[in-house]
TrEMBL record:
InterPro entries: Ice-binding_C (IPR013424). The keyword Signal applies. This is PEP-CTERM sorting domain-containing protein. Keywords: Signal.
């Protein structure tokens, strides 16, 4: 009676291991927000959580979002955005890093600093009205933490809105696990001048994402209205969406027969407890 149950468990564990490279991609591109909203909504639905943000961009404890729009003027163009703003000032469990010189969120209308980083013919906002860019670099690394702490964490999904992607094969998101191994990479769809692109990756087979690297075009922004080089193409970002960062203790890692054996023993013990009427853990 117990042998068939154990066999089913073993087969399930091996199937999970074989599928360990599985990521589901959500992507679309077009001239305006309407062109990518359905894809953004599908990504939201896959991760979980509602549509109304609670404190610190938390959606039911399942998902976090950053639309940059609540960043105060003191931390927006022409001022830099602190790399840990979204784990300290507004604790959402992400800290940024870049080989460039920092990060910037675009200015709101009505001030002395031009909106859209000073490129009104190239950029538009997806969520009104602030955008995000690294300064002096096309690379932004996003590392995950238990929100508001220095405890490293992982997530199962990350997606972003890109603005003004005009060159294929340049802008992309790369996903790295806890061992800094690249586990998934995907290029951002071209949207054309001033267009919007959405790209999200959702790991549905137990992979855990410790960091993502965003490559946004080949050019860079060094200051409002100033590009860093003559290359096409300059690209910035709007909304970031990701599954709630946390620990992965509930994720099985069938990395050896020994672990499988331990798991089988625990499974059978649990089954016996259950059969005896005791509650499950
Ligand atoms: Ca452009
Ligand atoms: Ca925005
Ligand atoms: Ca561009």
């Amino acid at each position: 009676m117990k042998l068939p149950i154990a066999s089913v468990f073993l087969a399930g564990a091996l199937a999970s291991q074989a599928a360990s490279a599985a990521f589901i991609t959500f992507e679309s591109a077009g001239p305006n927000a309407a062109a990518i909203t359905a894809t953004r909504d599908a990504f939201r639905g896959a991760i979980g959580g509602g549509t109304v943000a609670g404190a610190n961009g938390s959606f039911g404890g399942l998902r976090r979002e950053i639309n940059w729009d609540g960043v105060p003027d003191a931390f927006a163009d022409p001022n830099a955005l602190p790399a840990n703003f979204f784990n300290v000032n507004s604790p959402r469990g992400v800290v940024f890093s870049t080989p460039g010189t920092g990060f910037m969120v675009s200015a709101n209308a009505g001030g002395s600093t031009p909106t859209l980083f000073g490129f009104p013919s190239d950029f538009q906002a997806f969520s009104a009205q602030r955008l995000f860019t690294a300064i002096n670099s096309n690379t932004t690394d996003v590392t995950f933490f238990n929100p508001g702490t220095n405890t490293a964490a992982t997530t199962s999904a990350f997606g972003a809105v890109f603005v003004d992607v005009e060159a294929a094969g340049v802008s992309r998101i790369q996903f790295f696990d806890e061992n800094n191994v690249l586990i998934y990479s995907h290029d951002v769809l071209v949207a054309g001048n001033q267009g919007l692109s959405f790209l999200g990756g959702f790991a549905n087979a137990g992979e855990r994402i410790a960091r993502v690297r965003i490559t946004s075009g080949l050019n860079t922004i060094t200051a409002n209205g100033v590009l860093g080089n003559p290359n096409d193409d300059v690209v910035v970002m709007d909304d970031f969406l990701y599954a709630e960062p946390g620990q992965a203790e509930d994720v099985p890692e069938p990395s050896s027969i020994a672990l499988l054996a331990i798991g089988l023993a625990g499974c059978l013990a649990s089954l016996r407890r259950n059969a005896s009427g005791l509650p499950r853990d």
